């Protein structure tokens, strides 16, 4: 991964500061790793203070040297949390009344420490502001996403040639992950918000590919234990069972998301038909995903197509269905836009999302597809393949 | 993994309720996955209300069927967050004044929703209570830990036979992880608190094995990108370089932690000597780790031994040293007790911790060892091997 140019960070900062000004904030404290990395180039343990105008103050708690090497901005060492007010004052950042914080993800314990440190300050959420800004990817980000997508395609090509009935889900997962790792997969994913014990992917065959779990997903697989209730199990993939492989591709800094469902000999006709409908939905939604369209409109289009095929009750889950058909990806796996029911987000060129129309048939399995797309003036262009 | 017996959950509940009573709490809401799993047998998305006495109320939001199958207690479906007060009232749980919550890890946003839902309630931390209770493992838990340790030993045996200079750190990591995964490794780890983008393990050769990062670890490796600043890189392991392999072993529900540092031909004598000191520290500390000793005493013993060998400034990091030599493991990777400077925790039989005396030589590499132990009346017994 080439380091981004300074101008990229200048642009990001400028846009963020415009938002702070529009919200009448004096500045913002940023701590979430992906937000911090987006604004500075480092994900080390830092507190970043962004004033509404002027240079940001990046305080590195650990590791200072690493943060200094990576950051686009000057870095100051932070010995202790309680030094923050003094360092702000030294930098001339005084009289702060209203500050932004990532209230969507901050733990209560950290919030209370900030409150005690800067008494009298009024706190406002800037999590939404940063998620909104990060929706639209720059050319450099798109290049990184294409690179990640190409690596992931290579892994899917590899696994497609290797799988055969008789392998366990776990064996298939191990093959996939091992090859991906050799290509530089991080072996982890970044997810904004709660740690959920999620692994980067799912392998699930037959009825397991219709199993739901605690996650806000249409399906999750069986898993190896109730404490890790998703993904591959020891189940043997039998001929006649659908096989679902759904992995986040995390190469370099950027994440793409992709699913392939293999429907071999003897797979129920219901699944084959649903698969065709899913492919049509993906292709139609991608065609319509142009600047100016809302995310909610795309969701409605997909649901209408599923209903027309008589498959509405299987779409995006069965019973408790999820109410989205896609989600943004980038530095995190769960970015904006979410292509969800009623979502008013207006698409713009450069937005990147995974589109995953899936049908779930309890006791039988699932059908569908997932690819990652970028919005262009001529509709969404597929990055994964 | 065999399902635990009902009596195990009854005992856990009873001990937890004794703590609630001692804190003069009317009950507690539990949401963190490992705490929930510990008390109920399910890690599905639930809200668990534990009254100070009597049956717990387990409300399953998603997935209800899965939670019902797994839980030791009766489960009620929860349609919406706002139904919680009504369901509490139905169960006769009214007049609640003081309730416990995992204030150490709860996100601010969830805390505010609870506050709005149950106005007038006074909230107290029960994160510490649960961490303290979970320190001491039952015979069934110890059996699960031994099983996990045996699997992990098999992976270390495998990798020890495969590694050779000329492999990249990433190749070694891929080999290790792939074999571990085949044996049932979850491919993830559970860490109480913030998602930190941590992968389950580190492979680092030469100077990389002395590199620090944002984590509260003596060393972290280089990694593949600044957004995932730990673990294996594309660096080739050369003869004469130390090679560190440090992985959490997560098989079934339980996590063990283990490190091996390979010092082959041509490795600097400083590292060899430090390795010997580390082995002596591990063995002495384990011998002394008996019921009644405090964690802080063990830490002091280790530091004194490092100092006597003239290696104090390399112990547990160089420059910004960490102030622990071990940490509890179990359902999470970062449990209690922490064998840390000044820690007053009194050891008891059945406590399980990873002990990891390590020496760091910037620019050169690291030496040391890590194993997982259980405290017994005759000192700590090694589980990993």
Would you give an account of this structure?
Two copies of one chain form a homodimer. The first copy, chain A, has 385 residues and is α+β, with helices and mostly antiparallel strands. Chain A has two domains: 6-134, Creatinase/prolidase N-terminal domain (Creatine Amidinohydrolase, Chain A, domain 1), CATH 3.40.350.10; 136-382, Creatinase/methionine aminopeptidase superfamily (Creatine Amidinohydrolase), CATH 3.90.230.10. In chain A, 34% of the residues lie in helices and 22% in strands. Chain A contains ten helices and 16 strands. Chain A has helices spanning 6-22, 33-40, 64-70, 84-90, 108-117, 127-135, 139-162, 169-182, 269-288, 295-308, and strands spanning 27-30, 45-51, 57-62, 75-77, 98-101, 122-125, 201-205, 243-251, 254-262, 324-328, 335-340, 352-355, 358-361, 365-368, 371-376, 379-382. Chain A has a six-stranded mixed sheet. In chain A, strands 11-10-12-15-16 form a five-stranded antiparallel sheet. A three-stranded antiparallel sheet of chain A has the order 7-8-9. In chain A, helix 3 links the parallel strand 3 and strand 4 (75-77). In chain A, helix 9 (269-288) packs antiparallel against helix 10 (295-308). The model of chain A has no long low-confidence stretch (mean pLDDT 96). Chains A and B meet through helix 2, helix 5 and helix 8 of A and helix 2, helix 5 and helix 8 of B. Chains A, B: Keywords: Dipeptidase, Hydrolase, Protease. Chains A, B: Residues 12-136 form the Creatinase N-terminal domain. Chains A, B: Residues 144-377 form the Peptidase M24 domain. Chains A, B: Pfam families: Creatinase_N, Peptidase_M24.
């Amino acid at each position: 991964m080439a380091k981004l140019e300074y101008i990229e960070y200048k642009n990001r900062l400028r846009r963020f500061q415009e938002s702070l000004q529009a919200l009448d904030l004096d500045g913002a404290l940023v701590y979430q790793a992906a937000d911090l990395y987006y604004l500075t180039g480092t994900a080390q343990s830092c507190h970043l203070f962004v004033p509404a105008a002027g240079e940001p103050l990046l305080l590195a708690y650990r590791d200072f040297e690493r943060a200094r090497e990576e950051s686009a901005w000057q870095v100051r060492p932070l010995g202790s949390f309680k030094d923050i007010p003094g360092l702000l004052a030294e930098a001339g950042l005084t009289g702060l009344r209203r500050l932004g914080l990532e209230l969507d993800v901050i733990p209560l314990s950290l919030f209370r420490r900030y409150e005690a440190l800067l008494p009298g300050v009024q706190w406002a959420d800037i999590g939404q502001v940063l998620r909104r800004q990060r929706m639209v990817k720059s050319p450099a980000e798109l290049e990184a996403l294409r690179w990640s997508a190409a690596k992931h395609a290579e892994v899917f090509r590899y696994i497609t040639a290797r799988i055969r009935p008789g392998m366990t889900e776990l064996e298939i997962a191990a093959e996939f992950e091992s090859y991906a790792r050799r290509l530089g997969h991080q072996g982890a994913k970044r997810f904004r918000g709660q740690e959920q014990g999620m692994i980067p992917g799912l392998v699930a065959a037959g009825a397991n590919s219709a199993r739901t779990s605690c996650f806000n997903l249409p399906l999750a697989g069986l898993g190896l234990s109730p404490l890790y209730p998703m993904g591959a199990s020891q189940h043997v993939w039998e001929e006649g069972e659908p096989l679902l492989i759904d992995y986040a591709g995390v190469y370099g800094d950027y994440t793409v998301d992709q699913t392939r469902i293999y429907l071999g000999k003897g797979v129920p006709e219901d699944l084959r038909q649903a698969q065709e409908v899913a492919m049509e939905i993906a292709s139609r939604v991608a065609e319509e995903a142009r600047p100016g369209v809302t995310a909610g409109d795309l969701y409605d289009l997909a649901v209408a197509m599923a209903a027309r095929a008589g498959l509405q009750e299987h779409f995006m889950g069965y019973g408790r269905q999820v109410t989205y058909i896609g989600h943004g990806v980038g530095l995190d796996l769960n970015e904006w836009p979410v292509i969800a029911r009623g979502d008013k987000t207006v698409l713009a060129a450069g937005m990147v999302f995974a589109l995953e129309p899936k049908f779930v048939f309890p006791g039988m399995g699932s059908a569908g597809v997932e690819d990652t797309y970028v919005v262009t003036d001529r509709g969404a262009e597929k990055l994964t393949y």
